[in-house]
Amino acid sequence: MAATKVLNASETEAAIAGLSALLGDRLTTSAALREAHGRDESWHPVMPPDAVAFATSTEEVAAIVRICAAHRFPVIPFGTGTSLEGHISAPRGGLSLDLSRMNRIIAVNAADLDVHVEAGVTRKVLNAYLRDMGLFFPIDPGADASLGGMAATRASGTNAVRYGTMRENVLNLTAVMADGRIVRTARRARKSAAGYDLTRLLVGSEGTLGIITELTLRLYGIPEAISAGVVSFPAFEGAIEAVIETIQSGLPVARIEFLDEVQVAACNRYSKLSLPETPLLLVEFHGSEASVAEQATRFGEIAAAHGGGAFEWATKAEERTRLWEARHNALYASLALQPGKKGMTTDVCVPISRLAEAIKGTKDDLAKSRLVAPMVGHVGDGNFHLIMLVDPDNADDIAEARRIHDRMVTRALSLDGTCTGEHGIGEGKIKFLEAEHGAGVAVMRAIKQALDPLDILNPGKMLPY
Amino acid sequence: MAATKVLNASETEAAIAGLSALLGDRLTTSAALREAHGRDESWHPVMPPDAVAFATSTEEVAAIVRICAAHRFPVIPFGTGTSLEGHISAPRGGLSLDLSRMNRIIAVNAADLDVHVEAGVTRKVLNAYLRDMGLFFPIDPGADASLGGMAATRASGTNAVRYGTMRENVLNLTAVMADGRIVRTARRARKSAAGYDLTRLLVGSEGTLGIITELTLRLYGIPEAISAGVVSFPAFEGAIEAVIETIQSGLPVARIEFLDEVQVAACNRYSKLSLPETPLLLVEFHGSEASVAEQATRFGEIAAAHGGGAFEWATKAEERTRLWEARHNALYASLALQPGKKGMTTDVCVPISRLAEAIKGTKDDLAKSRLVAPMVGHVGDGNFHLIMLVDPDNADDIAEARRIHDRMVTRALSLDGTCTGEHGIGEGKIKFLEAEHGAGVAVMRAIKQALDPLDILNPGKMLPY
Fold it and tell me: ipTM of this predicted complex?
């Protein structure tokens, strides 16, 4: 890997001059915009880029990258800024390449259940557009993220247990490589055995191998029937056992979310609900009327067998929306518990047979800690999140949160899990990549070196140096 | 890419001597074994390796690769030899590394629905082992292939429409890289956002980036109920329309196979069936008793609306087995049509909205040709196969088959499809890789160069030089 490059002023100036000539007022060095582009939704410090560019086409992105390559000027792709591990900060300066104006929905192929979009389209915009066609795109990380950003971070969320993650739902993507070449990774066929899987290589590469500018995504018919419900458990162990049995029995649950008692209390307060403040599962079923009813009955039996309380169904769209909005607002609800504090958010993912162990370890750590930290999880996948509330100016808070975080990740790895199920590495988890992948990191580094020899694509992220 | 290396005799001798010292009688240069290892099930010519090694562990594979690397001796991984595009031949000599003795099923994690196996375990052996636990591994390419080989070629088959391909069903794999390093690509978590997706990079890499020695695969519960049935159509168009509507309606069909009238006739003769000799769909549904019944009813309605005839159900296991055995024996049934001829087998995959067009183009070509060529397809994915019967010693047969083949592939690409849905590139489709991937081929080549700089892993396959 090329040694870390410190830009000198004249290179920076030359790059900005070249970009400015290309983009006019779509290239800015305004302090406010630079600041806004160096910050995501995480606790990581703001590191602003030297400039921000607003691109409008794949060809323009290619031209931008060629200018940046000529000056070894870092390029950091930016969608909506909703990442959670400092993915979009500019530790080495450079250009934040904002793709939000690339927001065209290029083609919906209803017969093939796919859609071709530009990278800046957000998931909510896409789903609003699709609704009248009876179609939807299921990947739902909570935030209204851009689809390019979701691909770049291998996002997933609540629906992944049924529909998979971005890994399974990107048919192909168009990317600008480090030298400005434009690559379309695949055709629109549902499957292919032709060559290396460049689609999957770029999905989850966090902008370090190429800049995703367009994507073709899989779509699904809006289910004929949807039902959602909540069931409370006296303790988290019963909830997790119910999840394991649900998954093992092949019940095609569309969502199965865990909230611990701290999170439930936060949601009650924030979203004006009156859920019992004990661990709970929030579930959703998709299918025909008959199959949804059958699934719900079977899930109810499973929950009851593991100590679950009365099952409350919300088959009406408004009730469902209210429950799921509360779930989606879990982060904001958590932050509202201690106004003025920031949320240090993290996630891990383990085989579900080890999930109770993973959760218990962190709950035990928290019981001995003064930090308040709601927990929420996409437990059908073995994935859970912790939101530790910290005062960023209080070194003790930060140290304590880091300690609990490190123990949570180390424990997940010891249980054959991963240091992040869906947030990505960014800069926040670089130190765990080697612990997780061992010799695989050298393979990743060789790929990075081969595809971005000047190290201009989102440098300083993901790979340890 | 390193220039093609022609081995000199002393290097070959030195490599074989080193391997022989390591492996004893598990290294052989017997002509019969070399011949058997230079041949797959395709029409491609036999190109035997210089030697064959039978490995027994990942560590031993690493030691073998280190010896081969020291002498720049090609290494060609071999599972069961059931590939279809010349993947396992040895155009530059070298070692066929037979993994069939690495056949341990290491651990079934029933709660997590996964299994850790050595690469030489075949899918039928695995499924026989799992049956009593109520579990199965769905990927079914027809042949009783090794699971390592199936991963290496990104295999799929009849169940892919419901369960995905090897791409979606490998949780992690252990691979020996070109320098002998052992990499485990991921943990056992269902999803991860930690680093580049080395699992998916190796799945489908056809032995050119690393040698897959172990895998963790996703499992599924054996469905409570399975039903299968056949429905005939007067012409293929109605069958394809029925497929499109089935997929679009979200019906979770587990298998939906198309056989053209030539293939049906061949199956009738070979498998002693009495199906009407017109195009047909063979379908299977998995689920609860109630959901299977519901799916079957809905499919019956869809088929009828597109001109399908009476729907014949086979809910009994024996009847189902008989039908699916006939489907699985389609290749042998086809070969039996003209004894003495060989089957030039190929596959393409297109978006299903373009499937009728793709099929019609090839049927029209065949109508004007003297070749007999049954057609069969995993049409829920837009994937279909052609088995052209040719006399390998008849240059006219070969030329005619190549012409139809080229037109079929070129047509698939023009319909935004892929040159191969599931057979892979091997040596048979190298010439189409550039047409399909354009600038992507340079990216693939850069990755190959970075990970196998001496070009010893299955050289001469997949990538054009």
Answer: 0.96
